[in-house]
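Supplementary Methods, section 5.1.

A reviewer requested that the exact input to the structure prediction be made available. We therefore reproduce it here, unchanged from the version used in the analyses.
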Amino acid sequence: MREKLEPEDVLQDAYLAASKRFSELDYSTDGAFVRRMCRIIDNRLRDLATLSLRAWHAIEQWPTEITVGSDPITLPPIVLRKLARISIKTPQASAPMNLTTDRITWPAVAGATQYRIHFSSFSDKPHPTSNWFVMESTTRNELTLSESSQATLRAASEHWKRGTRGGIRIEAFNADMHRIGTTVGDHPFLIADELQPQ
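The structure derived from this sequence is encoded token-by-token as follows.
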């Protein structure tokens, strides 16, 4: 271990490192060359000393002995939850939506204390893509976009233009923040009217 941490010729290692860095530089006087070379070697020696010290500290922290037990380890049980399927009522799939006045509604999920609504925009060019750009939270099973946070309103105004397509995905969470319900796939709709300034 000592041989790995303390090279026999530290100065040679430092000199080679300095030479490699110095080969790309050009100095007009021998004095400038020597001063620069000394600084590079000094920095290299400091780096090597720091690395060696850290390595020795790490070795000192290693345990001197370990005990391997044969007793079984009890792991916490795995809990499987069947997610409730959420079907969005309004807007209907691919139907036009007025972003300022129309409400997004869905059936309440038993035990849900929070819903997360994810919004996306669709593009057909150069190939079909879906871009999820913002998320909004609510305790109710409905949402009017114009009543959302400022961050959501800014993102919706930027991504949802008249005539383009948007998408919605909803997740339900219980009081322990375990996901207990979700929509299946994207719920698409057509932007009939953009958000109007409030």
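The longest strand covers residues 114-123. These observations are discussed further in the main text.
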